[in-house]
Amino acid sequence: MSKNKQLVITYGDKQYTLEFTKDTVRKTENMGFKVRELFDYPANNIPILFRGAFLANHKWLQVSVIDEMYDDLPDKDDLINKLYEMYNEPIQALVGLEEDANKGKKSKWEASF
Questions:
Q1: With b meaning 16 or more CB within 10 Å and e meaning fewer, what string describes 33-48?
Q2: Which of 28, 52, 92, 105 is paired with 6 by a 20 to 30 Å CA distance?
């Protein structure tokens, strides 16, 4: 079972599990997503964020189907906030911001300046 936050979308008679991993965050950024511009340029960034959430479990799903799903979904404000939260989780793990990030670590670093 995944430790990442997940969101399940039911579209028609199928269910889709959306989530982000470190790898899919990177791929989403390579698709042109810029988290700092999410709300400044929503027409560009929100569709990319939504599409990126499918990469972990449904990477072969056609973009046109993903876009149809997005257009059909209610409560988009809450959905976008959840996607943003899911996107940030692997980033926090990457930079060590999660709780207990240093517990059990064998490595450490220090600066001489």
A1: beeeebeeeeeebbbb
A2: 105
